[in-house]
Structures are given as C-alpha cells and as structure tokens.
Specification:
The protein is mainly β and about 800 residues long. It is built from three helices and 62 strands. Strands 23-24-26-29-32-37-40-43-46-49-52 form an eleven-stranded parallel sheet, with helices on one face. It has a ten-stranded parallel sheet with strand order 25-27-30-33-38-41-44-47-50-53, with no helix packed on it. A nine-stranded parallel sheet has the order 28-31-36-39-42-45-48-51-54, with no helix packed on it.
C-alpha cells in the first residue's frame, strides 16, 4: 500500500487529544439534563462536552443523533471543576456515567467522530454501542482515552443488539484505545468488539482487559472482505477473561509488542511474530480504586517499550507519572517501582564537584545501569546553573527530572503552558549546547522540567539514541526572575537518532519552544540517514506561555528527514515560516492537526480575528521535498501564503482549513496564482506537484445546508479526487479560501500519454449542518492518485436552489 493511500486511511490514527478540540458548541455538563442536551446537539454541530467531576445516573439513554449521514463530531471529556474553567482530574473514576437500577436501554453514541476521555461507564445493562460514521472525506474515528468500562451486561440477558458484547465499536475507519480499563463485564461474547468491515487502522496501547466473563478484546472483519487493515497492540495486559483474552480476525497486518496475555487467537497469523508476549500472571493488587495496579514483583512492571505507536503518554489512567523506572509498566496503571540508579544534584555549581549536575552526568556515564538525575538544590525558584561549557555527552540511558526540584509544578493548562520550572540551564551565549546524545553508542536521554537558554548552537542536540524524549520543558524567554535568553536553535534532532518524542499527548508533556534566533526545532539528517520516525506533538512553537502571544523563533520548525509525525502543535508567531520541509530526504512526513498562524486558545473575533501570524508562510516545501502529507491543519493569518510548494512533488493537501493568509491558501511554485495550462507540457513532471490544474466550477446550488457542485477538470489521464471548500468570500486573485471542507467527488480522465482530457462532474455533493451555504463561495482542489494537489480554484457563489434558474 503506498504512503499516500495509507495516509488517507490513517489521518487520525495516532492523533492524541492533548488539547481540547475546537468545536462549534461547547457544553459545561454538571447535570444529567446537560449531558442529554450535549449529545442531542451533536446532531447539528460539532460538540465538546466538558463534564464536571461527579456521578451521573441515567434513567434512560439520551437520544443520540439519528441521521444516516452524520457529519458532526462528539467529544465527551470528564474531570472538570464546577464551571469548567479548569480540569482537576484525568482519572476516569472521578467522572462516572451510570445507569439506574433496572434500566436496560442500550447506551448508544453515534457521530462522525467519537472521543471519550476520563470517563467511567458503569452498569450499562444492555451494553455500549459506539458508532462512528461520516459521509464526508475524512475518516471516521473512535477514540477511548483513559476510559473505564465496568459491570456492563451483568443484569440483562442481551448486550449491544444481537452481538452479545459489552462494548460494540463499529462504522469507524480508525480506532484508538489508549489507557482504557475493561473489567467485570458480563457478556459471554466479547468485552470489547471492534467490527472491522470499514476499519483501516487501530491502536491499542497501555490498556488492561481483565476479569471479563467472555473474551477480552475481539477485532473482527465481520464482512469477510476487509483484509488490509492494520492493528498495533503495544504495552497491554489481557488476563483472566472467560475465554480468549485477545483475538484478531481478518488481517495479517498485526503488530503485537510487549504484552501479557494467557490465550490469544490470530487469524491469519501476523506477518511478524509477537514480540515479548508473556503468558505470566500480572499479579494485580486486587483491592481499592487501583485494583488493577500490578504489585511490585509483577512481570508487567518496567517491561513496556518506550516507543509505542503515538508516543508514550505522560501519565497513566489515574494521572500518575507514566514513566517511573527504566521502562513503562504494561497496562493502564503505572506503579512507583523505580529500577533506576538515583543521582542527586544539590548545588548550582558548573564544576566537576560532588552534587553538581556535571558530576551527576559524569557518574551516569560511568554507570552500567540506567540512571535518573534528580534535584534538591537549596534556595528560591528558579535555581540557575550557568554552563561555561557543554555538559558531557550522554553515554547511556539517563533521565534528567527537573520536576523533582522542590517547588516545580507540571503544566495543567489544556492549551497553554503554566508549568513552574525550578531548574534552568543557561549558556550565556558562548556555550554551544547543554545536552547532547552522540551519534554512536546505545544512548537514551529523557529530559523534563528544565528551562534552557543562551546556547550558541542548539540547547539540546539529539544526534543518536533510540527513544529519546523531551517533555515539559521551556526553551527561551522569562522563567520567573530569570531571563533564559535566546539560543540559536532550541532543539536539533538528527544523526542516527530514531524514535524521539518531543511533547506528547498529555498536557504535562507539552514544551514551550520559543525565542530562537534560528529555528525552534530542527530535524536534520545524518550521513546516509533519512528516516527519523520522530514525533513532535502538542507543543507551543513560537508563542508565549498562554499560547496567545508572540515569542517567535526565526523559523518555527524545519524538517530535512523522513517519516516524522508533526501533530497537534501550535506553530505561530515565528518571524519567517511556521514550518519548512526542506530537501529530497524530507519525505513521507505527516503534518496533521496543527494550528499554524493561529492562537492556542479562544480568540474573540471582534471585529475580526487577527490570529498569531507567522511572518512569512505557514508551511513551505522546498528543495525537492516530496511524498509528504499535510492534512487536517488550520493554517490562517500568516503574512504570506498558507502553503507554498516551491519545489517538490506528491505533496498531499487534504481537509486543511486555510484562510485569511496574506497570499494564496495554496501556491504551487511560489509565484502567485497559476493558470490552467502547465500540467501536460514537456517537463511538467518536475514542476511543484506537477503543476496540476485546478478544477473549474460552473455551478453550485442547493438548500441552506446541502447542495450540488458542477464543474470540470482538464488534465492528464488518471483518477482524481475533487475536494470542495466553503467560505464567506474569495481570497486573493479571486481564488478560493479553504476554510471549511464541505464535500468531495471523483472523476476519471481518459487521454493519450502527454495529452490532456476533460471530465465533467455534476454530482459534487456538499453539505454542512452548522454552516448556511447560501451566499457562501465554493472552491475546490484536485488531487491525483500520487497525492499531487492543485491550487484552489476560482470561486463560485452557492445559490439557493429556489432562485438558481432565475425564477426570482
């Protein structure tokens, strides 16, 4: 399966929910009636329901959306304080949804995308149905994150229709189960069943399926026709279920890495044999609110991989630190078992003396085991260590835990960075760097809770190692009474380093990366090395602590290597480009769900929004960077273009919201709006995205919330996707803005090699339940089968169908 095609399937596959989703409607839920109203409203618009800590006992199931073509998303997140101004808990046990005694209704949720987080679902007698469906282009996704399902299907003879399963997930293209606890459910079938007839990708990480009456987790191709879906199962416990603990059926594309299970069934067998699949009792504690916490002698303790799909969470299901020892524990809970060698920093000296950070790093390098460096420095916060020279290279597995210093507090903000950091490493402008992993040797650096600034090369250099992490740090700017000053580059990753995590899907993992005189984050290449596999997620790059002010780097982020994932970041306020893909080795990267040129939090648009613009373009593709996917981002208010493809091919631009930029939303060639005349010419294959022609729209009409678009595409032979967008007005040069994706169609063109053909379409369906389309302008892009995407077309006003034929 090609990179472009699979990415169409996995746009949402490993996207965390670290920041509260931006929705058409937000509800603060502190009553059963509020809960019901939020679910009902998701039939009309995207809904985020913030649920106040407490128990909500349902006397009946709130009516879910009932239309077949659901186009709206529903997000339910527990753990909020009264008024929903802040979130006080991520532990699902603190926010409980429960059915009353004798209620046998099916707990059913249906939306385009479903996201459940920090919730306990208890005693749903007839089971739980989670149905994701959308008629639009984007994949339908079901995400359960820190969710407990307990005691479903105990008192009722039927569960989730006729499937005899406690939790039935169906209709989804992508399913993510992260840190879920599924226990004590009475179904004799499956505790959780994922019907895979439309499934493309699924991940199950850091979860526990235990003590259920029937099977634990079942992933089934119910139609028998889907043999191409992918399943990643990492760091889980499947134990003491009534029959099979884990079952997959219908695909050989199953990766099973570091799990505990007694009985498994894989049909067909996975392409690669399971790695470290233990058939050993996980030894749960067996009592209290953490009954499924392994005891200290459990084989689950410190056994997981540091680099599961999507990156390692910052905290476990209950909100405790996820990485305590040398490796994470398996399952939903993390013990406090620390197998690291502890080294303590007690002074701010830069000399090689007892108690200094330099001495601790030297000790760690001489150690034969994994080490953790903690801090207990007397004095007021922050404690500043002025480095006259770089610290010794990291030579082994070393954790530097700045949050161990007294007075430090991890970030709690859902959109900003409100952490209190009490350890600062300052270079004074002449020291090249603070920390470095060399390109050779078996090294791993995990650093958190540190303020960095004043380095002439890069504050942190990850030149080697597998599974490095940089989480919860601040680069540049004021840190209490200390000014960290600027570094040339804040973070550089390259050489032979693989699998680095920068930030993460938890709020506590977010980094503040600002004020660099060069680049905030550079992902570069080493000698002969082009695959990074790095994750940069949920960071503030170029902003102040609130995420709403300008603290720009010169360039927000630059990528020169391949197979990296950049998602859910705010990349705004930088002096030049927000993000640059640079060079022929920058390939097969996925840039998704970032806010580029926008503020992190809510902006009251009176009289209009101004965003937090990058000084040049939002995203720039240069020097032959090819085969990259830029999807589902919000790219707006930048002073130049939204996306510039100066040189590169197979740059997929899909379902982005691009608008209000100083130039075009999409500019092929960095030369302004192109005419439709280049893509069949000699040498066109070397043009940016082969100079693909844009569609010509001839008519757009319908009712307030749906309609049909007609038009034509003239280009070379092949199959093409046409994606439609709506906005209130055209952009520069009468070109469309890509503010809101509202539908798509496909066309096939037949033409001799080297010549163009034309295909018309009269069935381009557009729809939006929340946007009145009448009077809006419609535009479109064309996408070929290799991922080349055109510029946006000229605009066509959407007419009310009553007046479309001049009956006015």
């Amino acid at each position: 399966m090609s990179f472009v095609i699979r990415t169409l399937f996995v746009l949402f596959a490993f996207m965390g929910a670290a920041q509260v989703a931006h929705a058409d409607a937000e509800f603060c839920v502190d009553s059963v009636s509020d809960f019901a109203a939020a679910i009902a409203e998701s039939d009309n618009q995207d809904v985020v329901a913030k649920i106040v800590v407490g128990q909500y006992t349902l006397s009946s199931m709130p009516h879910p959306p009932g239309t077949d073509d659901v186009s709206d998303a529903l997000t339910l997140i527990g753990g909020y304080a009264p008024g929903c101004g802040s979130r006080t808990s991520v532990d699902p046990k603190d926010t409980r949804i429960q059915f009353g005694i004798g209620v046998n209704d099916l707990f059913s949720l249906k939306a385009a995308d479903l996201h459940l987080e920090s919730l306990s679902l208890i005693g749903m007698n007839a089971g739980i149905s989670l149905y994701a469906y959308t008629a639009s282009l984007a994949d339908a996704t079901v995400t359960l994150r820190r969710v407990e399902v307990r005691s479903a299907c105990v008192a009722s003879p039927h569960c989730s229709s006729n499937l005899n399963t406690a939790v039935d997930i169906y209709g989804a293209d992508v399913v993510n189960l992260s840190q879920v606890l599924i226990t004590g459910n009475g179904s004799s079938g499956c505790a959780v069943r994922v019907r895979a007839y439309s499934l493309d990708d699924m991940s199950v990480t850091q979860s526990t399926f235990a003590n259920n009456a029937g099977k634990g987790l079942c992933i089934d191709d119910t139609s028998g026709s889907n043999d191409g879906f992918y399943v990643d199962i990492y760091n889980n416990i499947f134990w003491n279920n009534g029959s099979t603990d884990l079952r997959t059926d219908g695909t050989e594309r199953v990766r099973v890495v570091r799990n505990i299970a007694h009985t498994t069934s894989f049909t067909p067998a996975p392409e690669s044999a399971p790695v470290n699949l233990l058939d050993e009792n996980p030894q749960f504690s067996g009592s209290g609110s953490s009954a499924f916490l392994p005891v200290s002698t459990s084989p689950a303790v410190n056994f997981g991989t540091l680099i599961p799909p999507g990156g390692l969470p910052g905290s476990d299901i209950a909100g405790n630190p996820r990485l305590v020892g040398n490796a994470p524990d398996l399952g939903a809970y993390e013990t406090d078992v620390d197998d690291l060698n502890n080294l303590l920093v007690t002074n701010t000296s830069d000399a090689l003396i007892a108690g200094s950070l330099r001495f601790a790093v030297t000790q760690a390098n001489n150690s034969s085991v994994a080490d953790v460096i903690r801090f207990n420095i007397p004095g007021s916060c922050p404690r500043t260590i002025n480095l006259a020279s770089p610290l010794p290279n990291i030579e082994g597995a070393v954790t530097i835990d700045g949050y161990s210093q007294n007075g430090s507090v991890r970030n709690q903000s859902s959109t900003g960075f409100d952490a209190t950091l009490c350890v600062a490493l300052v270079g004074g402008g002449t020291t090249t760097h603070a920390l470095r992993t060399p390109s050779s040797g078996s090294t791993r650096l995990n650093v958190s809770g540190i303020g960095f600034g004043g380095f002439s090369d890069s504050a942190v250099r990850l030149s080697g190692g597998n599974g490095n992490s940089v989480t919860g740090n601040q680069f540049g700017g004021p840190l209490g009474s200390v000014n960290l000053n600027s570094s040339t580059v804040n973070l550089r990753i390259g050489g032979s380093a693989q699998g680095a995590l920068v930030g993460g899907d938890d709020d506590v993992q977010r980094n503040l990366i600002s004020y660099a005189t060069g680049t905030g984050i550079e992902i570069v290449t080493g000698s002969g090395f082009d695959n990074g596999f790095h994750i940069v997620e949920n960071n503030l790059i170029g902003t102040t602590r609130s995420g709403n002010g300008d603290a720009g780097n010169l360039v927000g982020m630059s990528i020169e290597s391949g197979e990296n994932r950049v998602r859910d970041n705010v990349i705004s306020g930088n002096s030049l480009n927000g993000l640059t893909l640079d060079g022929s080795l920058a390939k097969e990267n996925v840039i998704s769900s970032n806010r580029i040129g926008l503020r992190a939090g809510f902006e009251l648009c009176l009289p209009s929004c101004s965003g937090l613009p990058n000084g040049l373009h939002g995203i720039t593709v240069i020097n032959g960077a090819s085969d990259n996917n830029i999807v589902l981002n919000s790219i707006a208010y930048n002073l130049g273009d939204g996306v510039v493809i100066g040189a590169g091919r197979h740059i997929l631009l899909l379902s982005n919201s691009t608008h209000s930029n100083g130039g075009l939303s999409i500019d092929l060639g960095n030369d302004g709006a192109d005419s439709n005349d280049n893509d069949a010419a000699a040498g066109a294959s070397s043009l940016p995205n082969r100079g693909l022609n844009w569609p010509v729209l001839t008519r757009a009409s319908g009712s307030s919330h749906s309609g049909i678009v007609s038009g034509r595409l003239t280009t070379t032979a092949g199959n093409y996707l046409i994606q439609f967008f709506a906005d209130s007005a055209c952009g520069n040069g009468a070109r469309g803005e890509g503010r809101t994706a509202v539908g798509s169609t496909s066309v096939t063109i037949v033409a001799p090699a080297g010549f163009q053909g034309t295909s018309t379409f009269n069935d381009g369906s557009v729809a939006s339940s929340s946007l009145n389309l009448v009077g809006k302008v419609i535009s479109a892009v064309a996408v070929d089968s290799a991922g080349n995407t055109s510029e946006l077309s000229t605009c066509r006003i959407f007419d009310d169908i009553i007046f479309a034929d001049s009956f006015d």
